[in-house]
Specification:
With about 250 residues, the protein is an alpha/beta fold. It has helices spanning about 1-10, 60-65, 75-85, 100-110, 120-125, 145-150, 170-175, 185-200, 220-225, 230-245, and strands at about 25-30, 50-55, 90-95, 115, 135-140, 160, 205-210, 230. It has two domains: about 25-115 and about 235-245, 3-Layer(aba) Sandwich (Rossmann fold); about 115-230, Rossmann fold (3-Layer(aba) Sandwich), CATH 3.40.50. Helix 8 (about 185-200) runs parallel beside helix 9 (about 220-225).
Protein backbone atom coordinates (compact mmCIF):
# COMPACT_ATOMS: atom_id res chain seq x y z
CA UNK A 1 0.00 0.00 0.00
CA UNK A 2 2.78 2.54 0.83
CA UNK A 3 4.50 1.68 -2.44
CA UNK A 4 1.32 2.50 -4.40
CA UNK A 5 1.02 5.86 -2.65
CA UNK A 6 4.61 6.82 -3.46
CA UNK A 7 4.18 5.82 -7.12
CA UNK A 8 1.01 7.89 -7.49
CA UNK A 9 2.68 10.92 -5.93
CA UNK A 10 5.75 10.63 -8.15
CA UNK A 11 3.57 10.69 -11.30
CA UNK A 12 2.19 14.18 -10.55
CA UNK A 13 4.37 16.12 -12.99
CA UNK A 14 3.23 19.60 -14.03
CA UNK A 15 4.18 20.56 -17.56
CA UNK A 16 5.57 24.03 -18.28
CA UNK A 17 6.56 26.05 -21.31
CA UNK A 18 4.12 28.98 -21.19
CA UNK A 19 4.00 32.22 -19.21
CA UNK A 20 0.26 32.16 -18.41
CA UNK A 21 -2.07 29.23 -17.77
CA UNK A 22 -5.83 28.80 -17.55
CA UNK A 23 -6.70 31.34 -20.26
CA UNK A 24 -6.43 29.58 -23.64
CA UNK A 25 -8.22 32.29 -25.65
CA UNK A 26 -6.36 35.43 -26.74
CA UNK A 27 -8.27 38.55 -27.85
CA UNK A 28 -6.68 41.23 -30.06
CA UNK A 29 -8.13 44.59 -29.02
CA UNK A 30 -8.43 47.85 -30.93
CA UNK A 31 -7.07 50.96 -29.24
CA UNK A 32 -10.16 52.84 -28.05
CA UNK A 33 -11.51 54.75 -25.03
CA UNK A 34 -15.29 54.36 -25.24
CA UNK A 35 -17.01 52.51 -22.37
CA UNK A 36 -17.12 48.74 -22.65
CA UNK A 37 -20.29 47.79 -20.82
CA UNK A 38 -21.06 44.27 -19.64
CA UNK A 39 -21.62 42.15 -22.75
CA UNK A 40 -19.04 44.08 -24.77
CA UNK A 41 -16.19 41.84 -25.93
CA UNK A 42 -13.67 44.14 -24.26
CA UNK A 43 -15.24 43.79 -20.82
CA UNK A 44 -13.49 40.89 -19.09
CA UNK A 45 -16.58 40.19 -16.96
CA UNK A 46 -18.53 39.35 -20.15
CA UNK A 47 -16.84 35.97 -20.46
CA UNK A 48 -17.63 32.89 -18.35
CA UNK A 49 -13.96 31.90 -18.70
CA UNK A 50 -10.61 33.74 -18.40
CA UNK A 51 -9.20 35.41 -21.53
CA UNK A 52 -5.95 37.13 -22.49
CA UNK A 53 -6.13 40.64 -23.95
CA UNK A 54 -3.61 42.48 -26.11
CA UNK A 55 -4.23 46.04 -27.35
CA UNK A 56 -2.81 46.74 -30.82
CA UNK A 57 -1.33 50.23 -30.73
CA UNK A 58 -2.57 52.57 -33.44
CA UNK A 59 -5.46 50.31 -34.40
CA UNK A 60 -8.23 52.81 -33.76
CA UNK A 61 -11.82 51.91 -34.70
CA UNK A 62 -11.79 54.62 -37.37
CA UNK A 63 -8.60 53.27 -38.91
CA UNK A 64 -9.80 49.65 -38.87
CA UNK A 65 -13.41 50.20 -39.93
CA UNK A 66 -13.33 53.31 -42.10
CA UNK A 67 -9.81 52.94 -43.54
CA UNK A 68 -9.76 49.19 -44.10
CA UNK A 69 -7.05 48.56 -41.46
CA UNK A 70 -4.48 49.76 -44.00
CA UNK A 71 -0.92 49.04 -42.90
CA UNK A 72 -1.93 47.29 -39.67
CA UNK A 73 -1.46 43.63 -40.60
CA UNK A 74 2.14 43.40 -39.22
CA UNK A 75 0.98 44.90 -35.92
CA UNK A 76 -1.85 42.40 -35.58
CA UNK A 77 0.43 39.51 -36.48
CA UNK A 78 3.01 40.51 -33.86
CA UNK A 79 0.31 41.02 -31.20
CA UNK A 80 -1.22 37.63 -32.00
CA UNK A 81 2.18 35.95 -31.77
CA UNK A 82 2.76 37.59 -28.41
CA UNK A 83 -0.55 36.20 -27.12
CA UNK A 84 0.47 32.74 -28.30
CA UNK A 85 3.85 33.12 -26.58
CA UNK A 86 2.04 34.03 -23.37
CA UNK A 87 -0.13 30.92 -23.54
CA UNK A 88 -3.06 31.52 -25.88
CA UNK A 89 -4.13 28.42 -27.79
CA UNK A 90 -6.48 30.29 -30.12
CA UNK A 91 -6.90 33.90 -31.25
CA UNK A 92 -9.87 36.15 -31.91
CA UNK A 93 -10.29 39.90 -32.42
CA UNK A 94 -12.64 42.57 -31.17
CA UNK A 95 -13.63 43.93 -34.56
CA UNK A 96 -15.62 42.07 -37.20
CA UNK A 97 -13.92 44.10 -39.92
CA UNK A 98 -10.70 42.21 -39.23
CA UNK A 99 -12.11 39.38 -41.34
CA UNK A 100 -9.76 40.99 -43.86
CA UNK A 101 -6.86 39.39 -41.96
CA UNK A 102 -8.37 35.95 -41.31
CA UNK A 103 -6.12 33.98 -43.64
CA UNK A 104 -2.94 35.91 -42.86
CA UNK A 105 -3.33 35.69 -39.08
CA UNK A 106 -4.12 31.97 -39.20
CA UNK A 107 -1.02 31.37 -41.32
CA UNK A 108 1.18 33.50 -39.07
CA UNK A 109 0.37 32.15 -35.61
CA UNK A 110 -0.16 28.42 -36.13
CA UNK A 111 -3.19 28.17 -33.81
CA UNK A 112 -6.93 28.41 -34.57
CA UNK A 113 -8.04 31.96 -35.44
CA UNK A 114 -11.56 33.41 -35.59
CA UNK A 115 -11.34 37.06 -36.55
CA UNK A 116 -14.98 37.99 -37.03
CA UNK A 117 -18.52 37.33 -35.88
CA UNK A 118 -19.36 37.28 -39.59
CA UNK A 119 -17.82 33.81 -39.80
CA UNK A 120 -21.07 32.51 -38.30
CA UNK A 121 -23.13 33.46 -41.36
CA UNK A 122 -22.52 30.18 -43.28
CA UNK A 123 -23.19 28.11 -40.14
CA UNK A 124 -26.44 29.93 -39.39
CA UNK A 125 -27.53 29.71 -43.03
CA UNK A 126 -27.28 25.93 -42.83
CA UNK A 127 -29.89 25.93 -40.04
CA UNK A 128 -32.54 27.92 -41.90
CA UNK A 129 -35.46 26.52 -43.88
CA UNK A 130 -35.56 26.90 -47.67
CA UNK A 131 -36.32 30.43 -48.79
CA UNK A 132 -34.76 32.04 -45.72
CA UNK A 133 -31.31 33.63 -45.41
CA UNK A 134 -29.10 35.38 -42.90
CA UNK A 135 -29.02 39.16 -42.56
CA UNK A 136 -26.21 41.22 -41.01
CA UNK A 137 -26.31 44.27 -38.78
CA UNK A 138 -22.99 46.12 -38.84
CA UNK A 139 -21.64 49.30 -37.34
CA UNK A 140 -20.97 50.73 -40.82
CA UNK A 141 -22.63 49.32 -43.92
CA UNK A 142 -20.71 51.67 -46.20
CA UNK A 143 -17.38 50.28 -44.95
CA UNK A 144 -18.26 46.58 -45.17
CA UNK A 145 -16.78 45.62 -48.54
CA UNK A 146 -16.91 42.41 -50.57
CA UNK A 147 -13.37 41.68 -49.31
CA UNK A 148 -14.62 41.67 -45.72
CA UNK A 149 -17.44 39.32 -46.63
CA UNK A 150 -15.17 37.01 -48.62
CA UNK A 151 -12.71 36.87 -45.72
CA UNK A 152 -15.45 35.50 -43.49
CA UNK A 153 -17.04 33.24 -46.12
CA UNK A 154 -20.19 35.37 -46.34
CA UNK A 155 -22.21 35.38 -49.60
CA UNK A 156 -21.84 38.73 -51.34
CA UNK A 157 -25.60 39.14 -51.74
CA UNK A 158 -26.19 38.96 -47.98
CA UNK A 159 -28.51 41.80 -46.86
CA UNK A 160 -26.70 44.27 -44.59
CA UNK A 161 -27.87 47.22 -42.50
CA UNK A 162 -25.62 49.62 -40.57
CA UNK A 163 -25.89 51.99 -37.63
CA UNK A 164 -24.05 54.92 -39.21
CA UNK A 165 -27.25 56.99 -39.47
CA UNK A 166 -28.07 56.53 -35.79
CA UNK A 167 -27.60 59.08 -33.04
CA UNK A 168 -25.06 57.45 -30.71
CA UNK A 169 -23.56 54.03 -31.44
CA UNK A 170 -21.58 54.91 -34.58
CA UNK A 171 -20.38 58.33 -33.52
CA UNK A 172 -19.09 57.13 -30.14
CA UNK A 173 -17.51 53.85 -31.27
CA UNK A 174 -16.12 54.82 -34.66
CA UNK A 175 -15.84 58.60 -34.77
CA UNK A 176 -14.74 58.80 -31.12
CA UNK A 177 -16.60 62.06 -30.60
CA UNK A 178 -16.70 61.48 -26.83
CA UNK A 179 -15.57 58.97 -24.21
CA UNK A 180 -18.96 58.39 -22.60
CA UNK A 181 -21.98 56.77 -24.25
CA UNK A 182 -25.74 57.05 -23.82
CA UNK A 183 -26.52 53.33 -23.60
CA UNK A 184 -30.23 53.83 -24.27
CA UNK A 185 -29.53 55.70 -27.51
CA UNK A 186 -26.94 53.10 -28.55
CA UNK A 187 -29.51 50.37 -27.85
CA UNK A 188 -32.03 52.22 -29.99
CA UNK A 189 -29.58 52.53 -32.89
CA UNK A 190 -28.86 48.79 -32.95
CA UNK A 191 -32.48 47.69 -32.54
CA UNK A 192 -33.73 50.12 -35.18
CA UNK A 193 -31.07 48.90 -37.64
CA UNK A 194 -32.19 45.31 -37.09
CA UNK A 195 -35.85 46.22 -37.57
CA UNK A 196 -35.00 48.07 -40.78
CA UNK A 197 -33.09 45.02 -42.01
CA UNK A 198 -36.01 42.68 -41.32
CA UNK A 199 -38.56 45.04 -42.87
CA UNK A 200 -36.57 45.54 -46.07
CA UNK A 201 -35.79 41.83 -46.39
CA UNK A 202 -38.77 39.63 -45.44
CA UNK A 203 -36.73 36.55 -46.36
CA UNK A 204 -34.28 37.13 -43.51
CA UNK A 205 -34.65 34.24 -41.10
CA UNK A 206 -31.80 35.02 -38.68
CA UNK A 207 -29.50 37.93 -37.86
CA UNK A 208 -25.76 38.04 -37.25
CA UNK A 209 -24.42 41.11 -35.44
CA UNK A 210 -21.04 42.01 -36.91
CA UNK A 211 -19.88 44.46 -34.27
CA UNK A 212 -18.31 43.07 -31.10
CA UNK A 213 -19.87 45.91 -29.11
CA UNK A 214 -23.41 44.76 -29.98
CA UNK A 215 -23.92 41.70 -27.72
CA UNK A 216 -25.41 43.86 -24.91
CA UNK A 217 -28.33 44.55 -27.26
CA UNK A 218 -28.72 41.09 -28.82
CA UNK A 219 -31.59 39.96 -26.59
CA UNK A 220 -33.54 43.11 -27.42
CA UNK A 221 -32.85 42.65 -31.14
CA UNK A 222 -34.22 39.13 -30.89
CA UNK A 223 -37.31 40.31 -28.99
CA UNK A 224 -37.96 43.15 -31.45
CA UNK A 225 -37.54 41.10 -34.63
CA UNK A 226 -38.66 37.66 -33.45
CA UNK A 227 -35.61 36.19 -35.22
CA UNK A 228 -32.65 34.18 -33.91
CA UNK A 229 -29.72 36.50 -33.25
CA UNK A 230 -26.02 35.56 -33.22
CA UNK A 231 -23.07 37.72 -32.23
CA UNK A 232 -19.45 37.54 -31.14
CA UNK A 233 -20.50 36.15 -27.76
CA UNK A 234 -22.28 33.19 -29.32
CA UNK A 235 -19.30 32.55 -31.61
CA UNK A 236 -16.57 32.82 -29.01
CA UNK A 237 -18.34 30.68 -26.42
CA UNK A 238 -18.56 28.02 -29.15
CA UNK A 239 -14.92 28.60 -30.12
CA UNK A 240 -13.76 28.27 -26.52
CA UNK A 241 -15.79 25.08 -26.02
CA UNK A 242 -13.44 23.34 -28.43
CA UNK A 243 -10.41 24.51 -26.46
CA UNK A 244 -11.81 23.33 -23.13
CA UNK A 245 -14.61 20.79 -23.71
CA UNK A 246 -16.89 20.30 -20.75
CA UNK A 247 -15.96 17.32 -18.63
CA UNK A 248 -19.00 15.17 -17.79
CA UNK A 249 -18.12 13.27 -14.67
Amino acid sequence: MPTTAVTAQASRIARGGKAIYGAPLGILMLEARFPRILGDMGNGATWPFPVLYRVVGGASPDRVVMQGAAGLLPDFVEAARELVRLGAEAITTNCGFLALFQRELAEAVGVPVATSSLMQVPWVQATLPPGKRVGVVTVSKGSLTPKHLEGAGVPLDTPVTGTENGREFFRVLIKAEKDDMDVDLAWQDVVEAALALAKANPDVGAIVLECTNMPPYAADVQAATGLPVYDIYSMITWFHAGLRPRVFG
